TrEMBL record:
It is found in: Secreted. GO terms for cellular component: extracellular space. This is Meteorin-like protein. Keywords: Disulfide bond, Hormone, Secreted, Signal. One of its GO terms (molecular function) is hormone activity. The gene is metrnl.
Amino acid sequence: MRRAPAPAPSPLLALLLGLLALDRGCAAQYSSDLCSWKGSGLTHESHKKDVEQVYLRCAEGSIEWMYPTGALIVNLRPNILSSSSKHWTVCIKPFKDSAGANIYLEKTGELKLLVRDGDHSPTRVHCFNFEEGGLFVEATPQLDISRKITGFQYELINKGTASDLHTISAPCRPCSDTEALLAVCTSDFVVRGTIQNVINEEEQRDSIIDVSVDRIYRQKTKIFKPTEDSDRWQGQIKTLLQCGVRPGEGDFLFTGRMHFGEARLGCAPRFRDFQRMYKEAKDKGLNPCEIGPD
């Protein structure tokens, strides 16, 4: 099946981008918040050529644009003074029923379609580097905008940490000793447990790993909860279907990050292998952090 061509920018958009190249602040309404923005295109009803600038300074948040008209320029930056843009990747996940606008990457007046209006494909997370441009959201022509809401969640991922670099570049590749040790220090969850079951979601292109846990070293949110009939915990971790995870015997050290409210697998060495690498690093004084007694 041939894919439909990307929609051409509207004459309005071409005009707006031309003005934008001259002055990033021209003919624009400004809104700012730390993490999330919620607004309405109805405020543009008498000024349909308005571009609204949105400034967000958080690691994660959301955009919710009701009754979209005109366009939004979304400026995302981490709230860290010394951060360098080359170390960050942006990921966005459109709301389930997001509609009414196309989402582009814009760089020096050139556009690259990121999310087409009404695109509800299973793989709904779109990632890009800061160097590739910023987000430009243009409302599409609608006969009735009363039921349209364009929205997405966003996350900024620091490629400077081993666990994030592993997740972005090659999520199925086994971690090196150094990556595994750093993942223990920087991950949102670190637990020792076994794989009880794996559910493959073909449509979502994900595998759901049912994990039985006997030791929690860290969890920032309550991913793993105690079972009623034992002293163990249970929880679920997601990873890409292409990684081919299978149930198996033996203990693993599971690490990973929370992405868009879901626990995503990072490094997961067998626990005996982790004990070896941890002891070797500790004996040499090179272990990046203490994990505590077994």
